[in-house]
Amino acid sequence: MLFFKRSAEPRHSDWQESLQLSQWLGQAPGGSPEPPELSQAPLLDPTRAFDVCHVGLVLRAVLGVQLLLALGCALVARDAEQWLALTANGTVVTMFAVLSWLLAVCAAKRLWPRLPEPAQWGALMGLGALGALLGFGLLSLTSEELPGAWRIFSVAACGASGAAGLLAWLKLREHSQRPADALAQLVELQSRIRPHFLFNTLNSAIALVQVDPARAESVLEDLAELFRVALADAGASVTLAEEVELARRYLAIEQIRFGPRLRIVWQLDPEAGTARVPPLLLQPLVENAVRHGVEPNDAGGELEVSTLRRGAEVEIRIANTVGAPARTAGHGLALRNVRQRLRLMHDVAARFDIESTERRFSLRILVPS
């Protein structure tokens, strides 16, 4: 449990967070309060359209360009042998051009959004033409015949056209993700700390004030930290270590309510703590585990949280025992929310698997380390 030193005078940011929280809970004047993320929903990261530093995007771009190359060669080839020769030679040029273009876009992904729209298209099409010319130059090293000016111009034009096609695809992909991102933020709000949890926590703190003031203070500090994260910008990523600490605070509060009925097992790999994950990833999952695996059962239940780094991946496991059915049926919002935000952040590099039996519910998350 962490304790924080309190300053003599409240900071301006602390006052703002307190006012924001009180307005969310309907305790401050000013009309009908709205959750901060609904009234001031953050826009998509402007660099997202140019964030091509993902294996899934690279594979799609490479396969798409290769498919177009194969179709184009099939239109001009006289027979299968010539088609194979044209495709092989074209692959040298296209692979160099596509991979160098993606590398340049990824390396300068924070620069491109600062340029006006026409400048983005012009610069990136120019990069595509340059990459195609360099790839064609590598291919020409194996030939004694010097290419003509028309062939060089054709290669540059194809490179620029390919870059324009890739840029159009990236912008279309980013535009199509906006509704999904907005929905993910809305579902995230629905799966965040619920009012009944706040009510139970405050009652627990009130009961502890007389018998154990230090513990009551600790409970309120944990609650304040949970709401500080809940009210923060949901667009940024956090480390897995920070998420684990937040889950610890949540479970420490629930431990006061359930006592020995809530049995928690932690198996944490320190090397896994640096992995980047969406904020509030673990809290809704452990909340689900408590709600469905511990609360309905008179004997309580066991909750296990483990992390493990395996090479370039980090594995997160959350498992709980299953007994009586929950008093209130769930809607799967938290699980859908986690899966959606993982896909938006890590694309195909993240995995989310669920294993369910009569006595145990387990989920596994894999993210890049």
Explained architecture:
With 369 residues, the protein is α+β, with helices and mostly antiparallel strands. It has two domains: 48-179, no CATH class; 191-368, Histidine kinase-like ATPase, C-terminal domain (Heat Shock Protein 90), CATH 3.30.565.10. It has eleven helices and seven strands. Strand 4 (301-310) and strand 5 form a beta hairpin. It is elongated and about 90 Å long.
Task: Give a quick summary of the entry.
The chain has 369 residues and is of the alpha+beta class. Helix content is 58%, strand content 12%. The protein has helices at 12-24, 36-39, 55-76, 80-107, 117-140, 149-190, 195-211, 213-230, 240-258, 282-293, 333-346, and strands spanning 238-239, 262-267, 276-277, 301-310, 313-321, 351-356, 360-368.
Which labels suit this protein?
single chain, 369 residues, alpha+beta, Heat Shock Protein 90, 2 domains, five-stranded mixed beta sheet, two-stranded antiparallel ribbon, disordered N terminus
Radius of gyration: 27 Å
Tell me the CATH architecture of the largest domain.
2-Layer Sandwich
Largest sheet: 5 strands, mixed
Q: What structural class should be given to the helix and strand makeup?
A: alpha+beta
Task: Please give the number of β-strands.
Answer: 7
Helix content: 55-70%
Give the strand order, joined by hyphens, for the main sheet: 2-4-5-7-6
Mean pLDDT equals 77
Strand content: 5-15%
Spell out the CATH superfamily of the largest domain: Histidine kinase-like ATPase, C-terminal domain
The CATH class of the largest domain turns out to be Alpha Beta
What's the tally of helices?
Answer: 11
N-to-C series of helices and strands: HHHHHHHHEHEEHEEHEE
Shape: elongated
Distance between the termini: 26 Å
CATH topology of the largest domain: Heat Shock Protein 90
